[in-house]
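From the thread on structure requests for the teaching lab: each student submitted one protein with a one-line request. Submission from student K.M.:

"Model Sodium-dependent bicarbonate transporter from Nostoc commune NIES-4072, tokens only."
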Amino acid sequence: MDFLSLFLMDFIKQLQSPTLGFLIGGMVIAALGSELVIPEAICTIIVFMLLTKIGLNGGIAIRNSNLTEMILPAAFAIVTGILVVFIARYTLAKLPKVKTVDAIATGGLFGAVSGSTMAAALTLLEEQKISYEAWSGALYPFMDIPALVTAIVIANIYINKKKYKEAAYSIEKQSFSEQRVAAGNYPDQKDYPSSRQEYLSQQKGAADNRVKIWPIIEESLRGPALSAMLLGLALGLFTQPESVYKSFYDPAFRGLLSILMLVMGMEAWSRIGELRKVAQWYVVYSVVAPFLHGLIAFGLGMIAHYATGFSMGGVVILAIIASSSSDISGPPTLRAGIPSANPSAYIGASTAVGTPVAIGLCIPFFIGLAQAIGG
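Reply posted by the TA:
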């Protein structure tokens, strides 16, 4: 059976699955003006339980497997997360009416990982009886943290360089003495720079302040999504949680995921209005980027497949987390790290378009691609 037939079959199955069905249902009732509201506290609990379950499963699997098997896939996850940010920096940022800082933040959000999209992919793989390494879900932080750190560092470097160039340009337009009086930055005579070059050196010194990376990593690790997953991972590694996993977390997983998909569908519809406030290139990017990022990760995953025996199901998971865009921990991290970026641009692009594309199109696309290649 050719790739197109497999893709169409998987896409139809996905349309009939509860995962996408609830997502579309949420968008429909929001479009019809429904006043249905699911409290934020319930959503927080659901996210915690879903990601804890994935972490527990990964921790148990890592404890019972050879850690060396993870090295290459984890390295490829890191590379993909960083690469996604640079792609946005040198593609989206070059498009008309797109601000560079907003583009970098968007790249950071698309390089980071959506726990809900990963959960949806794991569910569909299980429904179709496609095997994958249970520790594949643990690749999440290896892609998520590097993407967010890279975005914040690149954005701050860009902002600082821009400030320095603006200072230099301002001095070119007026004499140094006029600039000094107008700015009023030197209340004491002893603080006056003695020359234009010294003034520019001071500006450059301020612009070259290094962005501290560790606080960004700490911010990411403290986020609710990564915290829940890493907690589950640690418990799976260092304790024996099999009984509570089998009796509670595993049976409740699909039901909780369906509720989260409903909420995400409603949220996606509400965010569509935000995209009207920014350049429409964000819509184009949000449709194309999940496939591009996923194909890059899929290609790297195939290298791991042939080199180490990484399963095709694992390759699909790597591609799907690359296709996803963070919807939980990423936005607050970027708000704090790049405060000058417009949230309507990067959050709107992710939630309104990126997530539905990743769940509804990319998951069946990469499953079909894996089945076509793997026979």
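TA comment: Residues 187-192 have pLDDT under 50 and may be disordered. The CA atoms of residues 59 and 236 lie 4 Å apart.
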